[in-house]
């Protein structure tokens, strides 16, 4: 079985470190898949659902923005945050979604608009991940 080393780091913890068979990350224009031996690439990770396969089983996580360095033998993800489905407080995520939607309905400057869009994307990713 072809595997590669995956390390997922956030500012407050090492979220995951180990051998995986496959990785699918959310990027700006969709999803990006990685297998062992992938050509080297650096890409931006967008808020969404991250999936990786360990010993034939898919693991999921809600992730925020970050960067991914993909090499043939390993991949490193540096993310603002990552949460497993069981770590997500659904009521808190739903409240954050509602707050972000309310802010987007208001007339905002560009910085507030982008901040609200990012908050909404994170809340949506958390809610989707918690339902998997």
Tally of DSSP β-strands: 10
**Structural class by sheet pairing and helices:** alpha+beta
Percent of residues in β-strands: 35-45%
Indicate the radius of gyration in whole angstroms: 16 Å
Shape: globular
Average the pLDDT over all residues and give the rounded result.
88
Task: Report the span from N to C terminus.
Answer: 26 Å
**Which CATH class of the largest domain applies here?**
Mainly Beta
Low-confidence stretches: none
For the record, what is the CATH homologous superfamily label of the largest domain? Answer: F0F1 ATP synthase delta/epsilon subunit, N-terminal
Describe the structure.
This protein has 2 helices and 10 strands; from the N terminus they run ββββββββββαα. With 132 residues, it is an alpha+beta fold. It folds into 2 domains: 4-85, F0F1 ATP synthase delta/epsilon subunit, N-terminal (ATP Synthase, domain 1, Sandwich); 89-130, Up-down Bundle (Single alpha-helices involved in coiled-coils or other helix-helix interfaces), CATH 1.20.5.440. The protein has a 5-stranded mixed β-sheet with strand order 2-1-9-8-5, with no helix packed on it. α1 (90-105) runs antiparallel to α2 (110-130). The longest helix has 21 residues, at 110-130.
What are the salient characteristics of this protein?
2 helices, 132 residues, 5-stranded antiparallel beta sheet, single chain, alpha+beta, ATP Synthase, domain 1, 2 domains, 44% strand, 28% helix, 5-stranded mixed beta sheet, Single alpha-helices involved in coiled-coils or other helix-helix interfaces
